[in-house]
Write a structure and sequence with these properties.
By secondary structure, the protein is of the alpha/beta class. It is built from seven helices and twelve strands. Bound molecules: NADP nicotinamide-adenine-dinucleotide phosphate. NADP nicotinamide-adenine-dinucleotide phosphate (NAP) binds next to strand 2, helix 2 and helix 3.
Amino acid sequence: MPHILILGGTTEASALANALAERGVRATLSYAGRVANPRPQPVPVRIGGFGGIEGLVAYLRDAAVTHLVDATHPFAARMSANAVGAAAQTGVALLALTRPAWTPGSADRWRHVPDIAGAVAALAGPPRRVMLALGRMHIEAFAAQPHHHYLLRFVDAPTQPVRLPHHHLVVDRGPFDIGSDIALMRAHAIDLVVCKNAGGRGAEAKLTAARALSLPVLMIDRPHPPERTEVHDIADLLRWIDHTADLGV
Ligand code: NAP
């Protein structure tokens, strides 16, 4: 019987868990453990790192996983690379469920940077009011540009103090809507939005809000994962599972 391991932490991973549960397919959803209270899921959940490629190889063998689905966030580059490595070592079938990247429209004012360090460097210059739509893992780096006012939005209240001298923190969990993102940017007089090119619907509202307010966006481009097969929708992924299960995988 197939056993699908979903590497999660995204809305797509949760949607896939639902689809597999509805079909009665055995699946386990894996979280890194970054969020204090993940949403309840209809399949068994495991939490925490595996311990690199070797740890993931051991898990795949111990749990008799037949299919590995990498549905992590497009910026979770290490986990994605480990998935490719562990699948190669074990022969477990691997497919990535990814979101297409966002692309700018004619009314968008995006400047692209390759990574977080590039975004920090691009903030040299006079003080600004910046919405840092990045999640708490990457905020520390912006202490190198302490003169800006930063608007932060985290899923959980931080356990450590935020080391940015001028900031305002909102604790909220997406998906967000355009109207409230416009209101939030107006209320804090934001003049620049910094975000990662996550793609997907859940986090898109801030870009539409920035466009509506004619605000510039510093867009952090995606890291490049190693060669692997990707699909963008769950129907394709279910077909792949059916097809490979028919082949005796
Ligand atoms: P990362 O840098 O690629 O991963 C760092 C380590 O965390 C991995 O080597 C692995 O530890 C562990 N890990 C990551 N995802 C895991 C998962 N789904 N299940 C079990 N262990 C996992 O990843 P990250 O950027 O820290 O992201 C961590 C999680 O947050 C991911 O699940 C991702 O989908 C989610 N997320 C990330 C972002 C983002 O912007 N990066 C945004 C939203 C959600 P071991 O090597 O010990 O196995």
